[in-house]
Write a structure and sequence with these properties.
- The structure holds 2 protein chains of 2 kinds.
- Helix content of chain A is 27%, strand content 22%.
- By secondary structure, chain A is α/β, with parallel strands linked by helices.
- In chain A, strands 1, 2, 3, 4, 5, 16, 17, 18 and 19 form a 9-stranded mixed β-sheet that branches. A 5-stranded parallel β-sheet of chain A has the order 9-10-13-14-15.
- In chain A, helix 5 links the parallel strand 11 and strand 12 (220-221).
- By secondary structure, chain B is an alpha/beta fold.
- Chain B has 2 domains: 12-138 and 305-319, Aspartate/ornithine carbamoyltransferase (Rossmann fold, 3-Layer(aba) Sandwich); 140-299, Aspartate/ornithine carbamoyltransferase (Rossmann fold, 3-Layer(aba) Sandwich).
- Chain B contains 10 helices and 9 strands.
- Chain B has helices at 12-34, 59-70, 91-99, 115-122, 140-155, 179-190, 224-227, 252-259, 263-266, 300-319, and strands spanning 48-53, 74-79, 105-110, 128-134, 168-172, 194-198, 219-221, 233-236, 274-276.
- Chain B has a 5-stranded parallel β-sheet, with helices on one face. In chain B, strands 2-1-3-4 form a 4-stranded parallel β-sheet, with helices on both faces.
- Classes of the chains: A alpha/beta, B alpha/beta.
């Protein structure tokens, strides 16, 4: 069997679905086209795509009339919390949130305790991941303990199926170390992802530097801190020939630097987090610590640049940047609260609500483009066809709903969009052919 | 009472120009009361005011407590050095615990910007929050007492329509890290004054957009000597020595040389200029020994005296029934 037909090794779920499920009357959106067709799923795979499929013997028949059906979303940046911070999130709670939000695969950041920086910690994470309703792919740390100095054993981790390496929210500041890391990652065919910020320019920063940091009396991080780091990393990507993924680009200058690098033919990709096209630094005036994120919320001009970058393809993907935080952290003074907000369950809706983009464009940035970036393209190509792994979502694009932090699957509540009315919701989710979300409820 | 204050005093831009003027006009009455042989009125009898200073303070805490006592309120106080906060209790738990003892108003100081706003969301509906200074952000009663002192120095009192029209104030020192600067700019511009911020670029905020309350432009200058002869008010701010550790200024000596109000520079100050300082003063840094004492327009102690009256006016307007007696 080829890899296309069976999810191998790292992607195996504890309980693959073997029942027959039919999704009827939906509009299938995939990289090829948009078409009205029924989908039959069995044994974890899509077995037939066509019109008027026989519903005989199906355990579930999902009526997707008026909805869009696509391959599941792939999240390029999720902080799971486990191991180490189980009280704020576990693989189980993150998995429930993921599938409710349409994510069938999440890339779990190595910012755990212990850090995922060697083969045994990857194995531990894979064992934990079996408890999750979604597929969890560990991202390996680039440096040991994410210390920015010594290379982690990337090849051993890659041998277990790790395809992406990143020190998460810690920028590798030493250009010499980063160069070696890029060369080494390139040699094993992995993608190196970076959080781009110049740590000395961002020292002590709580929010974006500008009018609002000045008014609110908070230390700011200038846009230049991100722009300088992006330009340096692009320069090193050119030097080493390694494919580079830039996490959560947030500044107009950063987007422009990536646009130029792509025009020059550099192998670089990037994603944006939903809050960077939804909120601005002015929202920090509420002093709700859930608005403290990293990179920080930027100016309105930066938000406009991020939207333009999404529209013209400079920004390849949208990732949740899901970062659970303890309830007491949400009540800490703004400058003492650790950065990050929940995202798994709101990413699709914020994209549909805030972006002037078609659902086809949005699904591309949530599903097959991030899959390509994380090098899952052969198992997760975005194509809905017989023989493909049945990781599927049914999206009700026009569904209006109100965000509620308390209703989320996460063990944490750090969502500043509580009470906001948005549009677009995942109605059903299948992972490996198994129905895990039915009518917006977890059933797995 | 005409302006709508709501329940809290968190920042001057939240109460608006009318709110600022009403407090200053009201302050005239409390200045008069404080000059009586028995400076005490029963206006807040039965009310309890608790000062919650999560960051150390001497004058602001004492000033609020004096103001509350002269209005016949009961006072309680908590300071961090002796509190459960040191044992790891959260701000919210600390506030809710003390609120349960029956509190009408909290005066809050915290080293983090925004904490009084967070607390205002947590307390019961009848409890008022007065911002006693948060981070680098806001110190509204300092802005009020400074602007009252300027009105008084110019016109003898605030009067019914307090104004600083035509007055040019130079705020000198570490603007970026100063909550006093932000509240002063709001108060002074609300009364029509022109404000210039003066200091080295590394102690200036990245932006001053939105700082003034009348839409006027707040100027920035790095050349004190050329401006001094124009200034009606020389408003000095405290320089914190730890800023040197952050490489924001090369040395205290260089600061004194370029921005310190020393004897040589005093010759550039107009004889009728008013000189203010919010305290505590670093004599020998932002101001040299003896320089202030010899200048007739020095109002540093008047600021302290007026601070009590301004805080009485604020407490009275937020908690009182409308009758001073």
């Amino acid at each position: 069997m080829s890899r296309t037909e069976e999810a191998t090794g790292i992607d195996r779920l504890a309980n693959p679905g073997d029942s027959r499920v039919l999704i009827v009357n939906g509009d299938i959106v995939d990289p090829n086209d948009r078409r009205r067709a029924d989908i039959a799923v069995s044994g974890g795979l899509v077995v037939e795509v066509g019109e008027n499929l026989d519903t005989e013997g199906a355990e579930h028949v999902i009526d997707a009339a008026g909805c869009v059906v696509s391959t599941g979303f792939v999240d390029l940046r999720t902080c799971v919390g486990e191991p180490g911070d189980e009280q704020i999130e576990t693989v189980e709670s993150a998995g429930r949130g993921a599938v409710l939000g349409g994510f069938t695969t999440v890339l779990a950041m190595p910012s755990t305790t212990p850090t995922i920086d060697n083969a045994s910690s990857v194995r531990d994470m894979l064992r934990l991941a079996e408890r999750s309703l979604c597929r969890i792919r560990p991202v390996g740390a680039v440096t040991k303990g994410r210390n920015g100095n010594e290379l982690a054993e990337m090849a051993e981790m890659a041998g277990l199926g790790v395809t992406m390496f990143c020190d998460d929210e810690v920028t590798i500041a030493d250009s010499g170390v980063l160069r070696r890391a890029m060369e080494y990652a390139g040699g094993i065919g992995a993608t190196l992802a970076q959080h781009c910020v110049d740590p000395s320019l961002a020292a002590g920063a709580i929010m974006h530097e500008g009018e609002w940091s000045s008014r609110l009396g908070m230390q700011g991080s200038p846009a230049a801190a991100e722009e300088i780091a992006i330009v340096r990393d692009l320069t090193l990507a050119r030097l080493t020939g390694t494919s580079l993924h830039i996490q959560h680009v947030s500044t107009a200058g950063g987007v422009e630097a990536i646009r130029r690098a792509k025009a020059d033919g550099l192998e670089v990709t990037c994603h944006v987090a939903p809050y960077h096209f939804t909120s601005t630094d002015a929202d920090c005036a509420s002093f709700d610590p859930s608005f403290r994120v990293e990179p920080p919320l930027r100016s309105a001009a930066d938000v406009a640049a991020v939207k333009a970058g999404l529209a013209d393809g400079t920004i390849d993907a949208i990732a949740s940047d899901h970062t659970p935080r303890a309830p007491e952290d949400k009540e800490a003074p703004f400058d003492q609260a650790p950065p990050g907000m929940l995202g798994l369950e709101t990413t699709l809706a914020l994209a549909v609500t805030e972006l002037d983009m078609s659902i086809e464009q949005i699904v591309e940035k949530l599903s097959w483009r991030p899959a390509q970036i994380a090098r899952l393209g052969d198992v997760h190509s975005g194509v809905v066809a017989a023989g493909r792994v049945a990781d599927l979502v049914v999206i009700d694009v026009d569904h209006e709903w109100t965000i509620s932090g308390a209703a989320m699957a996460s063990n944490s509540r750090n969502c500043p969009y509580d009470g906001r009315t948005v549009k677009g919701r995942v109605r059903h989710t299948l992972v490996g052919g198994k129905l895990v979300v039915a009518d917006q409820q977890v059933v797995g | 009472m005409s302006a709508d204050f709501g329940r809290h005093l968190l920042a001057l831009n939240e109460i608006g120009v009318d709110g600022i003027k009403e407090i200053l006009s009201m302050t005239d009455r409390f200045v008069e009361i404080n000059e009586r042989p028995i400076p005490k009125v029963p206006a807040l009898r039965g009310k309890t005011v608790c000062t919650m200073f999560f960051e150390d303070s001497t004058r602001t805490k004492l000033s609020f407590e004096a103001a509350a006592k002269r209005l016949s309120a009961d006072t309680m106080s908590m300071s961090v050095s002796s509190s459960s906060v040191k044992k790891g209790e959260s701000v919210r738990d600390t506030i809710e615990t003390i609120q349960a003892m029956g509190i009408d108003a909290f005066v809050v100081r915290h080293k983090s910007s925004g904490v009084p706003w967070q607390i205002a969301n947590w307390v019961d509906d009848h409890v008022s929050i007065l911002n006693g200074g948060d981070g680098w952000h806001s110190h509204p009663t300092q802005g009020l007492l400074d602007s009252y002192t300027l009105c008084q120095a110019r016109d003898g009192e605030a009067g019914e329509n307090p104004s600083l029209d035509g007055v040019h104030v130079g705020l000198i020192g570490d603007i970026k890290h100063s909550r006093v600067a932000r509240s002063d700019v709001e108060a002074f511009t609300a009364l029509g004054a022109k404000v210039t911020l003066i200091g080295p670029p590394t102690l200036m905020p990245p932006s001053v957009v939105g700082w003034s309350m009348d839409g006027s432009t707040v100027d920035i200058s790095h050349d004190l000597d050329s401006l001094l002869p124009e200034l009606d008010v020389v408003a000095l701010l405290r320089i914190q020595r730890e800023r040197m550790g952050q490489a924001l200024i090369p040395s205290i000596g260089e600061y004194v040389e370029t921005f310190g109000l020393n004897r040589n520079r005093m010759s550039l100050v107009r004889p009728d200029a008013i000189i203010t300082h919010p305290g505590p003063m670093n004599r020998g840094v932002e101001v040299s020994v003896d320089v202030l004492d010899g200048h007739p327009g020095t109002v540093v102690l008047r600021q302290v005296t007026n601070g009590v009256a301004v805080r009485m006016a604020v407490l009275f307007l937020l908690l009182g029934s409308g009758v001073v007696s």
